[in-house]
């Protein structure tokens, strides 16, 4: 309890003007990721002695592109991002962003508990899902109406809520309040324990362990996830992310967190979405500025005769006049796309159920596999070993004229990518027929695996292809020199 | 400079030249066994602090998981808020064990005490091969360099070695298997090889010296127990080390590319493994082969890390109790039995490894039997104290601590020697408790006592009793508070080498206990500074010591303190065993040195 | 001063005993009673050794304390002059060796039952319940399709899960343990089962659960940076529940995402499990 009082309420909301609702800013502050299982007094004292006060703070890193902006632009972006999302130890719950921060309402109860300057008995309208430590409490009635205080902790059994600040005089009974951010705080705590060393503090996929892993951990900041149930142009749904966390990604170092409790799973995925949205928000702001104010652009402009003052005054004008609307636009765009991903309309659902998995169906699938319509062979190879001719070519970096340094396919993040070896029977996005169907239908986002659904292939054909692909690991190996395509005997092993 | 006594003159050969050899030859690249011994003592003492610091890192993570780690965390992981990464944790415990075993305990026993004491205690003027002796010390430095270099690769694209000090393949053999299995593991193996070479040179030297260079009258059964411990250890090392060295090279061949060509043997790697999406291994080898080879040496190493101390404690105990050793010959035989049985018990490290279950039964019986000579020794030590005139100085306190801790360590070993019970205890904190009780509780307390006891002979000055006692008190209390609860952690099922055991709900409630242990460990760690202060301070400011400050019987106390080059003024002649304390043959004092000539008839014991 | 050191050396063993005595009450003990028949026997052996060891611990430390105490108040000018006693040596060699041999031989049965394959329960060997493959850093589990037996190589209709092993309760079950990459160790503390998963070997192990419960499964052999992360569970459930679990798994694994078909097949699975 004493520990929590060390943490002060940090910043006051400052986006109150410019047409924003004050409620949009709820400041949440640091709680060490300790588990409240024991008294930490002695260790805390000891820590203080050993390390003094210079404890490094985890921080969100800016993207390389942001760092490449000229400095006032960089500062403007960094400020806007920090203002709306905070830092790892002082998260901000920006209610315009489509994150479920955790929102509980309640009132100061009477009864057995005692009201003191820093604690009171609390009654919530609905049961509280997770630990409230570190959430922000805002009074919605009474003499403290509109004021925020941090929550120290909430003892659900005793119904006693301890504040992280002192209120003198104490609150009155029946004062209404709102507690925001508990889910996000919980998610952050779990993220820092389970995910951070690979995916990084800011979700940049550059945690300390990341460099040893193949494939590299996902970077969240583009807002793109490979294995989803949604259509090609849609974001990943919350369910998709939960499923990935729960099942892991076979064949990679992403382990299965099967045993996380439901609320933990929800919380950690919410934090991942938060990081994703934060990254995309940053990207959208940078996109507006990059063309004119990146180092290269500024150099070009200087060469073409513009003066440094001109550029800077232009930039200042932009930041003052246009940036707020960019922020508005970016946030509403993000809100609609992430919200949309969680709707039913976004999910890929086959119109027809799976074609019976017969030898004929597999042969049809095989024919599609080698056909020019799908060109599966180009990447996955004639035998499905993931060694198609495309893996030997130099490919262009999308959006530029340069080619990658190494042969073979690359993903959107610039990592070298091998087409899946279908003979191993390891399916990263899941091994259910529907998973394979969705891979074929909507492609794999951020990779060269295209979407065949709707346009190229009909439902029946996709199912034929799925049936064939699922039979590849059980094909008999009968080499027949001369004709490689026919050498593959489609497996007739019954299911 | 050296005292060229007429009696000694024909004994000393050229290395003992009668001219001043100069500073470098005398103190740095010295061939004098005493200087080498002191070098071998100082280096491991410094390494002890390094290993201890690493241990505190490990303990910190266990007590305050994922919270900012002092120094290391804020240095390497500032962006993560000082929270270390899991592979750093694996590095920490790997290096802690490597440093403590290979750079502290093995060199401090055979290297420091063996070197310093063997010639003095058997009445020789130096080791049989002085130059080899010098090389044995200087081969420690490449080992320290390679271990250090392997650790220093951390932070770059390759982490430090992280496969544990046991370095089990496949984890250690495939560079992709663990962050530290790249160049760091190769460097680590080089370090291991150099430690081996250093030990082997020492071992050959000790055997030769003890067999060939004993003073007149020093029969085998008049040798002090320390010499017996060193002798048997040397034999053990000579037979066990080649296996480890071979295994080390095999692992090296499994990993290394030379001149762009892969040697890439597959001694330890089976076929078809896909680690971290690297190409499948071609294989044909077997990971258990390493375990057999490794433990064949490393179990014997337990004896190497214990037998000399057992001998030293026997010597110190008799002196401090003013009483002959209880059961000298049984003590010698039990030392030999521990060493002999030590060769056929290595499989008890592998009960759950999947080796043939019949082997499990065999190894269980041999392991149980090794407890027998250990028990005999304990009983004899207690018998030695019984009826003694006990002097409670720092030396004695450390000896008693040795016995007490050895009893705990020995008894906890019985649980794990029993195969079915070991199914549960294998690789839990119970084993961590066990080997810390044996290697730290027993060996290190013995070493602390030994330093205090032979310090006057090394430097001609006494160490401070007060500081020694405070150091002992803090170390003993800190040690027990740190390591005894580990037994309970083990019983509660907490596995070793977990960066965060509390992910598993059934271990959550152990967090407060771990915090208590960490605080104890920090106290214990800082207490070691007292030892350093006492050691280095006493070299300059200690009370001057006489030749025989403890009124002991051994030959080393015949020589001046510190002994000059060549050790003895005249060749000592031995008339009796080393433990004739309180002998009725003399009236005026309670000790009878091995060289004392009595006017009485039948004086020889 | 000497006496206080004697008390010091009496204090610590006493404290150790007291802590051990209180440990079960404070929760610093086994994570619950063994939930398998073999585990219960292992616990019995543990307590047998614990009793013997405690007696020896107390005995030796009382002896040590006694001789120290006597030595601290020794007033004669000279200590007792003795070089030992042949009889005592014989006694304290033969008695411990008898005890140790007894402990060793007494353990054999449990070990043989646990590990020697000819002693495995035949019903467990006939139908291994699953193949458990350890990899960095998770447990991949492969069940045979309902009604089939487990093959050593994957079959098209095998069922896969991760970190979630279900077994039928009350009868011995056997699993095939293997490793994809490095060495791991299959450790279920509550069942007192531990077996290393060695790359290149398929190691059968058997165990049972005497009650329907969920147990933690973790890795006990260093397998890399994520060693501590290999958190999984073993769910022991009744035969009926186990069958319906497999049926559900089957339904889920061959889900084609078309809502109507999915409900139909789940109904079919339900009726199938009822009719069984």
State the total count of DSSP E strands of chain C.
10
Instruction: Count every helix of chain B, treating DSSP H or I runs of 4 or more residues as helices.
Output: 18
What is the ordering of alpha helices and beta strands of chain B?
Answer: HHHHHHHHHEEHHHHHHHHH
Q: What characterizes the major β-sheet of chain C?
A: 5 strands, mixed
**Helix-strand topology string of chain C:** HHHHEEEEEEEEEEHH
CATH fold-type name of chain B: Cytochrome C Oxidase, Chain A
Strand order of the largest sheet of chain C: 3-2-1-5-8
The global form of chain B is globular
CATH class designation of the largest domain in chain C: Mainly Beta
- Compute the CA-based radius of gyration of chain B: 25 Å
> Percent of residues of chain C in beta strands?
15-25%
CATH C-level name of chain B: Mainly Alpha
Task: Supply the helix-strand structural class of chain C.
Answer: alpha+beta
Report, as a whole number of angstroms, the end-to-end distance of chain C.
79 Å
Task: Describe the strand arrangement of the main beta sheet of chain B, using strand numbers.
Answer: 1-2
Regarding quaternary structure, what we see is: heterotrimer
Q: What is the arithmetic mean of pLDDT of chain C?
A: 91
Amino- and carboxy-terminal Cα gap of chain B: 37 Å
In the predicted model, the low-confidence regions of chain C spanning at least 5 consecutive residues are 270-276
Structural class by helix and strand composition of chain B: mainly alpha
Protein chains sharing the most extensive interface: B-C, 114 and 100 residues
Can you characterise this structure?
The complex is a heterotrimer of chains A (495), B (605) and C (276). With 495 residues, chain A is α+β, with helices and mostly antiparallel strands. Chain A has 3 domains: 103-184, Thrombin, subunit H; 187-346, no CATH class; 359-489, Orthogonal Bundle (Cytochrome Bc1 Complex, Chain D, domain 2). Helix content of chain A is 36%, strand content 9%. Chain A has helices at 2-5, 41-51, 64-67, 71-85, 182-199, 238-247, 262-293, 295-303, 308-321, 323-341, 359-370, 376-380, 433-442, 459-471, 484-487; strands spanning 25-27, 86-87, 90-94, 103-108, 119-124, 136-139, 148-155, 160-163, 176-180, 409-410, 416-417. In chain A, the strands form 3 sheets. Chain A has a 6-stranded antiparallel beta barrel with strand order 4-5-8-7-6-9. A 3-stranded antiparallel sheet of chain A has the order 1-3-2. In chain A, helix 6 packs across helix 7 (262-293). The radius of gyration of chain A is 27 Å and the shape is globular. Chain A starts with a helix and ends in an 8-residue tail after the last helix. The model of chain A is unreliable at 1-41 and 478-487 (pLDDT under 50). In chain B, strand 1 (257-258) and strand 2 form a beta hairpin. The relative contact order of chain B is 0.10. Chain B has one domain (6-557): Cytochrome c oxidase-like, subunit I domain (Cytochrome C Oxidase, Chain A), CATH 1.20.210. Chain B is mainly α and 605 residues long. In chain B, helix 5 (86-122) runs antiparallel to helix 7, helix 5 (86-122) runs antiparallel to helix 9 (225-255) and helix 14 (394-417) packs antiparallel against helix 16 (429-459). Chain B has 18 helices and 2 strands. Chain B has a two-stranded antiparallel sheet with strand order 1-2. Chain B has helices spanning 6-9, 23-28, 33-63, 72-76, 86-122, 130-138, 140-152, 183-212, 225-255, 287-304, 307-321, 328-342, 357-385, 394-417, 419-425, 429-459, 465-491, 511-541, and strands spanning 257-258, 261-262. The longest helix of chain C has 36 residues, at 37-72. Chain C has helices at residues 2-26, 37-72, 86-115, 122-126, 239-253, 259-275, and strands at residues 130-135, 138-143, 159-162, 164-168, 173-179, 184-188, 193-197, 203-207, 213-219, 232-237. Chain C is an alpha+beta fold and 276 residues long. Chain C is elongated, with a radius of gyration of 27 Å. Chain C folds into 2 domains: 2-72 and 88-115, no CATH class; 123-256, Immunoglobulin-like (Sandwich), CATH 2.60.40. The N and C termini of chain C lie far apart (79 Å). The interface between B and C is large, with 114 and 100 residues.
């Amino acid at each position: 309890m004493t520990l929590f009082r060390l943490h002060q309420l940090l910043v006051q909301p400052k986006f109150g003007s410019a047409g924003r609702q004050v409620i949009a800013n709820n400041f949440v502050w640091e709680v060490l990721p300790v588990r409240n299982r024991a008294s930490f007094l002695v260790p805390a004292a000891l820590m203080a002695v050993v390390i003094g006060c210079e404890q490094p703070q985890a921080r969100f890193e800016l993207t390389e592109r942001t760092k490449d902006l000229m400095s006032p632009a960089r500062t403007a972006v960094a400020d806007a991002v920090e203002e709306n999302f905070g830092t790892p130890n002082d998260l901000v719950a920006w209610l315009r962003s489509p994150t479920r921060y955790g929102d509980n309402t309640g009132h100061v109860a009477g009864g057995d508990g005692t009201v003191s300057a820093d604690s009171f008995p609390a009654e919530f309208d609905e049961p509280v899902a997770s630990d409230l430590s570190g959430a922000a409490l805002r009074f919605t009635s009474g003499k403290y109406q509109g004021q925020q205080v941090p929550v120290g902790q909430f003892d659900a059994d005793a119904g006693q809520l301890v504040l992280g600040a002192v209120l003198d005089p104490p609150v009155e009974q029946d004062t209404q309040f709102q507690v925001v951010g508990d889910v996000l705080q919980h998610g952050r705590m779990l993220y820092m324990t389970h995910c951070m060393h690979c995916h990084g503090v800011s979700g940049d996929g550059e945690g300390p362990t990341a460099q040893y892993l193949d494939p590299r951990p996902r970077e969240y900041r583009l807002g793109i996830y490979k294995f989803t149930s949604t259509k090609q142009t849609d974001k990943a749904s919350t369910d998709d992310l939960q499923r990935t966390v729960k099942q892991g990604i076979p064949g990679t170092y992403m382990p299965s967190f099967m045993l996380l409790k439901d609320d933990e799973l929800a919380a950690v995925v919410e934090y991942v979405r938060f990081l994703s949205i934060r990254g995309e928000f940053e990207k959208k702001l940078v996109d507006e500025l990059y063309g004119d104010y990146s180092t290269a652009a500024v150099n070009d402009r200087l060469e073409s005769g513009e003066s440094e003052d001109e550029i800077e005054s232009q930039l200042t004008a932009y930041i003052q006049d246009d940036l707020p609307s960019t922020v508005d636009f970016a946030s509403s765009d993000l809100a609609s796309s992430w919200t949309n991903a969680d709707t039913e309309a976004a999910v890929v659902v086959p119109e027809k159920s799976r074609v019976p998995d017969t030898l004929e169906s597999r042969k049809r699938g095989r024919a599609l596999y080698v056909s020019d319509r799908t060109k599966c062979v180009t990447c996955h190879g004639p035998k499905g070993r993931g060694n198609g001719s495309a893996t030997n070519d130099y490919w262009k970096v999308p959006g530029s004229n340069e080619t990658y340094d190494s042969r073979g396919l690359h993903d959107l993040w610039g990592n070298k990518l091998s087409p899946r070896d279908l003979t191993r029977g390891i399916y990263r996005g899941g091994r259910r027929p529907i998973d394979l169907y969705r891979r074929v239908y909507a492609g794999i986002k951020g990779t060269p695996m295209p979407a065949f659904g709707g346009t190229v292939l009909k439902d029946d054909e996709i199912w034929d292809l799925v049936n064939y692909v699922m039979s590849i690991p059980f094909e008999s190996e009968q080499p027949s020199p001369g004709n490689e395509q026919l050498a593959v005997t489609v497996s007739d092993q019954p299911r | 400079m050296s005292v060229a006594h007429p009696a000694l003159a024909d004994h000393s050969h050229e290395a003992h030249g009668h001219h001043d050899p100069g500073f470098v030859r005398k103190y740095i690249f010295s061939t004098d066994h005493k200087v080498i011994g002191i070098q071998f003592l100082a280096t491991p003492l410094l390494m002890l602090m390094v290993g201890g610091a690493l241990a505190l890192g490990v303990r910190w993570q266990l007590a305050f998981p994922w919270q900012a780690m002092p120094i290391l965390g804020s240095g390497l992981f500032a962006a993560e808020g000082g929270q270390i990464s899991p592979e750093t944790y694996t590095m920490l415990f790997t290096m802690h064990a490597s440093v403590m075993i290979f750079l502290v305990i093995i060199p401090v026993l055979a290297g420091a005490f063996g070197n310093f004491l063997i010639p003095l205690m058997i009445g020789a003027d130096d080791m049989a091969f002085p130059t080899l002796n010098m090389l044995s010390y200087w081969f420690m430095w490449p080992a320290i360099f390679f271990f250090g270099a392997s650790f220093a690769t951390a932070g770059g694209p390759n982490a430090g070695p992280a496969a544990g000090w046991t370095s089990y393949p496949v984890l250690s053999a495939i560079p992709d298997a663990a962050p530290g299995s790249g160049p760091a593991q190769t460097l680590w193996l080089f370090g291991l090889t150099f430690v081996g070479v250093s030990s082997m040179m020492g071992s050959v030297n000790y055997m030769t010296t003890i067999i060939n260079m004993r003073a007149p009258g020093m029969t085998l059964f008049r040798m002090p127990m320390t010499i017996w411990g060193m002798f048997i250890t040397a034999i053990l090392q000579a037979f066990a080390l080649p296996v480890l060295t071979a295994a080390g090279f095999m692992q090296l061949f499994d990993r290394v590319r030379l001149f762009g060509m892969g040697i890439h043997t597959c001694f330890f790697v089976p076929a078809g493994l896909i680690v971290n999406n690297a190409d499948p291994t071609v294989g044909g080898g077997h990971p258990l082969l390493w375990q057999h080879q490794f433990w064949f040496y490393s179990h014997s190493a337990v004896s190497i890390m214990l037998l000399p101390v057992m001998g030293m404690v026997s010597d110190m105990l008799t002196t401090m109790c003013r009483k002959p050793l209880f059961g000298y010959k049984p003590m010698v035989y039990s030392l030999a039995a521990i060493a002999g049985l030590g060769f056929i018990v290595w499989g008890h490290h592998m009960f759950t490894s999947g080796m043939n279950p019949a082997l499990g039964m065999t190894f269980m019986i041999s392991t149980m039997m090794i407890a027998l000579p250990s028990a005999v020794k304990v009983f004899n030590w207690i018998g030695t104290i019984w009826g003694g005139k006990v002097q409670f100085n720092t030396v004695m306190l450390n000896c008693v601590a040795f016995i007490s801790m050895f009893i705990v360590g020995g008894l906890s070993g019985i649980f794990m020697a029993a195969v079915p019970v070991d199914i549960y205890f294998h690789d839990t904190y119970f084993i961590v408790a066990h080997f810390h009780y044996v290697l730290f509780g027993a060996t290190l307390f013995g070493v602390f006592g030994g330093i205090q006891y032979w310090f006057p002979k090394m430097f001609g000055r006494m160490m401070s009793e007060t500081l020694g006692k405070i150091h002992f008190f803090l170390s003993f209390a800190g040690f027990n508070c740190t390591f005894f609860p580990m037994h309970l952690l083990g019983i509660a099922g907490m596995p070793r080498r977990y960066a965060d055991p509390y992910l598993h709900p059934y271990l959550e409630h152990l967090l407060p206990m771990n915090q208590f242990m960490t605080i104890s460990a920090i106290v214990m760690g800082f207490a070691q500074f007292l030892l350093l202060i006492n050691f280095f301070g006493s070299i300059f400011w200690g009370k001057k010591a006489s030749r025989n400050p403890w009124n002991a019987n051994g030959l080393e106390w015949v020589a001046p303190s510190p002994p000059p080059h060549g050790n003895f003024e005249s060749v000592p002649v031995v008339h009796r065993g080393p433990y004739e304390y309180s002998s009725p043959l003399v009236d005026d004092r309670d000790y009878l040195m091995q060289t004392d000539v009595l006017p009485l008839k039948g004086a020889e014991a | 001063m000497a006496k206080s050191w004697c008390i010091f050396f009496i204090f610590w063993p006493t404290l150790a005993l007291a802590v051990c005595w209180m440990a079960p009450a404070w929760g610093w003990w086994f994570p619950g009673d063994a939930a398998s028949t073999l585990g219960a026997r292992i616990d019995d052996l543990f307590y047998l050794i614990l009793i013997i060891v405690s007696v020896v611990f107390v005995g030796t430390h009382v002896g040590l304390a006694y001789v120290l105490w006597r030595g601290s108040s020794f007033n004669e000018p000279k200590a007792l002059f003795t070089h030992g006693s042949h009889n005592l040596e014989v006694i304290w060699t033969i008695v411990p060796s008898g005890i140790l041999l007894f402990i060793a031989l007494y353990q054999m049965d449990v070990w043989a039952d646990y590990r020697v394959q000819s002693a495995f329960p035949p019903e467990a060997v006939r139908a291994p319940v699953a193949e458990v493959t350890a990899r960095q850093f998770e447990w991949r589990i492969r069940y045979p399709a309902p009604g089939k037996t487990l093959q050593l190589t994957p079959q098209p209709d095998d069922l896969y899960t991760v970190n979630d092993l279900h077994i039928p309760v009350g009868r011995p079950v056997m699993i095939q343990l293997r490793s994809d990459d490095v060495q791991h160790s299959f450790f279920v503390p509550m069942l007192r089962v531990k077996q290393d998963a060695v790359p290149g070997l398929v190691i059968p192990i058997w165990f049972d659960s005497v009650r329907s419960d969920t147990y933690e499964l973790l890795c006990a052999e260093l397998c890399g940076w994520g060693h501590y992360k290999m958190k999984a569970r073993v769910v022991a459930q009744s035969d009926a529940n186990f069958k319906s679990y497999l049926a559900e798994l089957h339904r889920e694994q061959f889900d084609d995402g078309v809502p109507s078909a999915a409900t139909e097949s789940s109904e079919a699975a339900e009726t199938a499990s009822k009719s069984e």
